[in-house]
Amino acid sequence: MTNATQDLRIVVADDHPVVLTAVTDYLDQIPGHKVVATAGSGADLLDTLRSTPCDLIVTDFSMQGELEDEDGLRLISRLRRLYPDIPLVVFTMLTNGGILHELAELGVAGLVGKDEPIPTLAQVCQRALVEPGTTLSARIAERLATEGSTADEFRRTNPLSPRELEVVRLFALGLSVTEISKRLSRSVTTVATQKRAAMRKLHLESNADLIRYASEHGFA
């Protein structure tokens, strides 16, 4: 980690340049903090981390990517597997309790909503470095409190599996079943089956119903 004479080295990733610049500029002006690299996609982030030592990773959850491990739960899972000792703070527009619980179970150090002020992100980053478990922003904590305090509690009342959650999330972003199959490295048949299973569990009859549900429940 860092010592009294060394800045906290941070890598920041987001696929929106304005957000990336704003977060980078804010973190850089905090005494003792230094953004040593930025990335505009999951692939860029993975490449950057191979050659750039850091003490903290701050990344968006949903980023454009062609491969299965460049976005969403797959990306976060891979980052946790490759860099288990580097705290990982995720900021996201999503408010779906299932996805947020899955992120906490993966062992991320912090969760922040992208609709919250940048100082909130900085506060969560600072707390995540010293507090065990997953540090939550106030809005994320409030959301999870209404969804059940643990992933097990959430699953008892919310029927979708992690794989179905990912399919619904990507479908809500506008990807076709074929595009989702390529993104997740699953067959078209598998993705179509998971989409139908999600719709059946949620008692939805059409694609429009699914998109509306996803919007109302924080998938997009």
TrEMBL record:
Modified residues (4-aspartylphosphate): D60
SMART domains in UniProt: HTH_LUXR (SM00421), REC (SM00448)
Keyword Phosphoprotein: yes
Keyword terms: DNA-binding, Phosphoprotein
Name listed for the protein in its UniProt record: Response regulator transcription factor
InterPro entries: CheY-like_superfamily (IPR011006), NreC/VraR/RcsB-like_REC (IPR058245), Sig_transdc_resp-reg_C-effctor (IPR016032), Sig_transdc_resp-reg_receiver (IPR001789), Tscrpt_reg_LuxR_C (IPR000792), WalR-like (IPR039420), WH-like_DNA-bd_sf (IPR036388)
Annotated HTH luxR-type domain residues: 153-218
Gene Ontology terms for molecular function: DNA binding
Pfam family, one: Response_reg
Keyword DNA-binding: yes
Positions of the Response regulatory domain: 9-129
Entries under PANTHER family matching the protein: TRANSCRIPTIONAL REGULATORY PROTEIN RCSB (PTHR43214:SF17), TWO-COMPONENT RESPONSE REGULATOR (PTHR43214)
Gene Ontology BP annotations: phosphorelay signal transduction system; regulation of DNA-templated transcription
